Amino acid sequence: MRAKRSLSQNFLTDPNLRRKVVKELEASPEDAVLEIGAGHGELGSLLVDRVAELVLVEKDDGLVSGLESRFAGCAGVRVVHGDALELDLTSLVPTGRTYRVLSNLPYAITTPLLFRILELRPSPARVVVTVQIEVAERIVAASGTKVYGALSVGVQVRGTARVAFRIGRMAFRPVPAVDSAVVVIEPALKALPAEEEMALRQLTRVAFGWRRKQLQKILRSAPEYRLRPEEVAEVAVAVGFDPHTRPETLDPATFLSLARALDRMGRERSGDPSC
Q1: Which of 158, 49, 32 lies closest to 98 in space, CA to CA?
Q2: Helix, strand, or coil (residue 11)
Q3: Are residues 136 and 244 located together in one domain of the fold?
Q4: Tens of pLDDT along 73-113?
């Protein structure tokens, strides 16, 4: 079956690299695996006899049909037809088992789909994703570097991330315009509460949208905050950052602390008794 450009399909054709990707999951026989974008089932075929449950999600009608045929009669395998951005992914997570997530993330929806995975509850034990090399570099970037941004913060406050290995573009069909990399993410045992997720998402969007401005200027001018100078000074002391620096200087932990402080300040302004 030919790849569909509309679905950003690029299939990994190298069998040795497929085995390397699956190895990074470190799945045990008691585990479940949720694969998003199962394609032709090449990675799934390497897992079917190694894990207790395998859930294969695929949007493409033709590929779903092939998956159902390929895994017909295989115990513990479920094929789900649907868009991972619209499906209730939490309902697909096997209960009572440690589970892991595997995905070759389509370029066009990499960021929203990655965050949908990281916001799963309970959190997966490990997430292994294949992304374009530039995205991989942004995910693992350290504060103070040119590629550090909202994606870096959003992933790193939720767990640890590393680039496992790089995959050249010629290993895919059709051949993409850039190389890719496999990123391994191990989510933290304690997930962020929903309100903190929202506060952090807003802060990073605003801050890196104004990344050339000083933090004090952003917090005073951004419509989402509109802090008075004394409020900026107060929150800077409470969190422990220099308000005259730029957003890329703050590490992920400081971003989270600042998001919490700003959310609390906003609730106090509105008279919310829950604060």
Answers
A1: 32
A2: strand
A3: no
A4: 899 999 999 999 999 999 998 888 999 999 999 888 899 99
